Amino acid sequence: TVMAFWWCRQAAADIPRHRQYSDFYFPRFVYGATVYGDHDVSSPIAQVVAVSMATNVTVTYGIRQITCGEKGDEENVDNASGIFRIIPQDGRISTSVKPPLCGKDGLPNATWKITIEASSDYSYDTALLRVETKTDQTFPCDVQEICFGHTDLRFRVVEESPPAVLFVFPPGYAVNSCSHARATYRVNQGDDGGVFAVDKQSSSLVTTQRLDRDTKDHYNITITCRLHQRRGTRRTKVISNVTAHVHVMDVDDNQPGLRPTANQQNVVNIENRYKGSKILSRPVELWDPDEVPNPPEIGRYHVAMETNLHNFISAKLDSKEQEGPTGVPGTLLSTNLFLKKTIPYAMEGEYPLRLTWQDATVDSSQDGNFASLNFTIVVTPIRLQFENLTYKAHVDTRATSLAKVQQLSVVAPPEDSSVTYSIVSSS
Q: Closest Cα to residue 47, out of 191, 192, 204, 250?
C-alpha cells in the first residue's frame, strides 16, 4: 500500500533549485510517498509531471540521484540498482522491492530522497521525491490527504497563452491506506465559461482556452474530489473540496486611449498667468487596460507638445493604477499643462496647441503615437487697476524739491514684470 502526498515547506538543503517563473517547470519543489510492506510492486508509488507553457513540447523524465538514511547519515545509492524506476514518458515512479531496504544493514524504516529531472529540447527542471518506507500501516484513512495532499493550489497563468496543464492530482486510482479506493476530480464552482477542467484520464487540472486579463485577472475555483471505496458488496463515496487560486499575469497588448471627457476642453482661457499655474481645469486622462508595471517603466510613455507657446508652457504626464470598467486594475495616464514662466501682462492672442502621446518602447520603424488632442489657448491682456480711484495728499509749504507726496500702487501686478507710472494730465 502507498500513500502519496506533497510537502510545501522543507528545509532549504532538501529542495533542489527550481525555475519557478520559466516556461518549463515542476509545479512543486518536493513530492512525497510512503511505501508499506504489503505494497504491490506492479503499482506506481508516485507520479511527477512538469508543466510547459509552450505547445508540442516533448518531456523526458529521469532519476538524477538517490540517497537513503536519516539526515546527516545518508548513503548514496546507485541509480542503476533498480530499487526505484521512472517511466521516461510520463514520470511514474515505482519500486522493484517491498519494502526498499536502506544501506548494508538493510534498514526497513528509512527515508529515501530521489532527485528527479524533467528535460525538454531547450530547458530542464528538477524536483525532489521523498519516500518513507514502513513495515505496516499505522494511520487512519484521511480523505483530504489522499485527494489533495498537503499542497497550496496557487497558480500563475500568462494571459493569451495556449491551454496548458496547471497541476496533476494523485492518480485516478489512489494507491494508499484506503484499500480498493478510487479518486475522481472535477471543477465544481468558479469556472466562468468552462475556462478550467480536470482531465479524467490524467487527473490534470488544465486551462481549456486562452485567458484575457483585461476581462478577469483572477479566478477562485472549487475542485471536488470524490473518493469511491468498496468494502465487500458495499460502496461508499466521500467528497472533499479544495479551492485553487489562479492569477492571470498581464501581457502588454493594449495602447492607452483618450477618455471621452478629454474632448470637452479644447478651448482654454488662461486666467492665472503666473509661473507654476495650471492651465487646464482638469487633467487630460487616458486609459490603458494593462496593469501598471512593477517596478514602473520610467519613460515608457511620453507626451509631445507643438505650440508657439513652448517657452511658456510645459506638459507633465503621470500614471497610476486604477480599477477599470470590468473591475480589473489598469493604468490611468493623466496629463497636466503648467506655466513654466509668467506670461507678460500685455500679451494677447489665440494660440493652437497639439498634444501627442507616444510609446517610447516601440521600434523606431513603427509609429509609436497612440493618441493626440488639439487645444486653442486664449491669452487676454491684463488691465491694471489702481488700489484706489482717488488719492488725496497734503503738501507742506516747506516741502523741498523731489519731496515724496504720495505712494501709488496697482492691484496684483504681474510677477517678474515692472510697472511704469506717468502723469497723463494735471490741473
A: 204
